[in-house]
Q: What sequence folds into this?
């Protein structure tokens, strides 16, 4: 505000200048082009200097970060031989844009559209129809798609769809879920649901997952917690546990020790491929069950593990994790808000590959812990210590390690 | 690019081994370069290799860093701030470089 009063206007960043240039050129080109002009997409890229296919997804990232992906800039991605496209922010892409994408990127096999609020029924069906090789669809926020369209979409994707992730829409209902499972269930290898407010029948899922290669399962933040019960998870893991590489049950707060002892421990036994395990906010889980799990099941490939806000956990569980064979591979560990932890956990933390540790709101973390963790974990680059008020400006921080969230660092 | 300052200079090296020398102050406009120059890295010596950026693109980047440094605190009413020109044919590559350098 002070700057506004001084009438000092911020200089535009180089990124903004470039995007402006790109945008104005595209619209100029569009104005000049006649009806035949649809062939010009490849030329646009040449005029703007050309870019390799490898870099296109980087370009997408840069545009999304600047909230500059719209129907205009989207044209940069048309007429390419891209097979995978990831857009982190599609909020400004209209349904016309998605249709253009479907027509001019016929080779797409994987598509990830986050914040795709403007994606409508017509555009989704259009993509299913025009992209013959499409097999992986990840959508965040497709709230215009209604029940009938989901049904039609899954029908037309039957036999093709192997990965389906959807989050943040209230129009994906039990009927949509059932349609997905009936038409595509036996091919799926990756399934991820997050914050679907109209889905309650999660119990339906296990019987349809037939693919022995199934490797990614995420069920997060169900609208009614009791819909994702221990029983549902037991049945799911019985079906797909042996080959899982990724498991996330964040926010399924109804789960109890039963799911860990009789589910994870039993059905992940012999699974040595698990790379990512996320059990955030499972407030009913106690240390006893996790201790048993980490003691019984070796997890030699685990590189990401989050136990964030499982507030009942004590040292027993975390110490056992750090003694598990997982410790050699572990790169990312989240212990945020585990208020009962003591320094004991951190003293035995000895992970050669650990890069990121979130120890925020763990009250026992002090200067001594910061020093110990730094020296025992040579690869550690980032440690978060928000809300750890015993970490002072006197803490000795190893070279190459960045500490964030320290109270004394504020402003 | 000659500057009559006494401040330490930084050399930026492009993928095709073109070298550009700018004042450290200008280089610090880029958060990416600042971390490189201040951190415990070999770039501390003042020589930064940027294998992802071509020479002609880097030349524009260097121009922008100096442009930004010069006009950052200028008062719009009293001074005329010239527009920074982006060559059309370089826009895409320049965007990628700008994204990397966070400017």
A:
């Amino acid at each position: 505000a002070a700057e506004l009063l001084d009438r000092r206007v911020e200089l535009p960043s180089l990124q903004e200048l470039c995007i402006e240039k790109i945008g104005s050129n595209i619209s100029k080109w569009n104005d000049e082009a006649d009806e035949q002009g649809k062939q010009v997409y490849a030329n646009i890229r040449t005029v703007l200097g050309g870019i390799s296919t490898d870099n296109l997804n980087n370009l997408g990232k840069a545009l999304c970060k600047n909230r500059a992906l719209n129907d205009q800039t989207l044209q940069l991605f048309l007429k390419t031989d891209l097979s995978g496209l990831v857009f982190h922010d599609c909020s400004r892409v209209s349904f016309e844009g998605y249709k253009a994408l479907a027509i001019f990127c016929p080779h797409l096999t994987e598509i990830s559209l986050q914040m795709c609020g403007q994606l409508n029924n017509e555009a989704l069906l259009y993509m299913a129809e025009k992209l013959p090789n499409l097999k992986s669809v990840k959508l965040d926020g497709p709230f215009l798609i209604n029940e009938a369209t989901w049904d039609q979409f899954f029908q037309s994707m039957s036999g093709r769809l192997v990965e389906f992730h959807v989050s943040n829409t209230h129009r994906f209902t039990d009927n949509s879920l059932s349609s997905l499972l009936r038409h595509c269930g036996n091919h799926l290898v990756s399934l991820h649901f997050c914050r679907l407010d109209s889905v309650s029948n999660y119990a339906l899922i296990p019987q349809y997952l037939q693919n022995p290669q199934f490797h990614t399962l995420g069920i997060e933040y169900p609208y009614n917690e009791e819909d994702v019960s221990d029983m549902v998870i037991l049945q799911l893991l019985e079906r797909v546990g042996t080959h899982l590489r990724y498991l996330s049950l964040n926010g399924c707060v109804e789960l109890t020790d039963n799911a860990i002892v009789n589910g994870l421990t039993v059905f992940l036994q012999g699974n040595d491929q698990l790379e990512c395990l996320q059990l955030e906010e499972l407030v009913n889980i106690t240390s006893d069950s996790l201790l048993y799990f980490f003691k019984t099941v070796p997890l030699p490939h685990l590189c990401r593990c989050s136990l964030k806000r499982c507030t009942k956990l004590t040292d027993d569980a975390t110490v056992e994790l750090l003694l598990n064979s997982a410790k050699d591979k572990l790169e990312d560990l989240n212990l945020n808000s585990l208020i009962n932890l003591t320094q004991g956990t951190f003293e035995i933390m000895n992970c050669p590959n650990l890069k990121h540790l979130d120890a925020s709101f763990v009250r026992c973390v002090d200067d001594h812990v910061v020093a110990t963790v730094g020296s025992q974990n040579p690869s550690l680059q980032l440690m978060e210590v928000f809300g750890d008020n015993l970490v002072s400006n006197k803490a000795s921080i190893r070279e190459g390690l960045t500490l964030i969230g320290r109270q004394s660092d504020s402003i | 690019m000659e500057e009559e300052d006494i401040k330490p200079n930084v050399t930026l090296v492009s993928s095709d081994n073109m070298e550009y020398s700018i004042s450290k102050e200008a280089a610090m406009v880029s958060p990416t370069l600042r971390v490189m120059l201040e951190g415990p890295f070999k770039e501390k010596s003042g020589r930064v290799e940027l294998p992802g950026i071509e020479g002609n693109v880097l030349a524009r980047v260097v121009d922008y860093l100096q442009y930004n440094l010069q006009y950052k605190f200028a008062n719009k009413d009293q001074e005329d701030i010239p527009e920074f020109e982006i060559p059309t044919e370089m826009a895409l590559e320049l965007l990628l470089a700008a994204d990397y350098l966070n400017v």
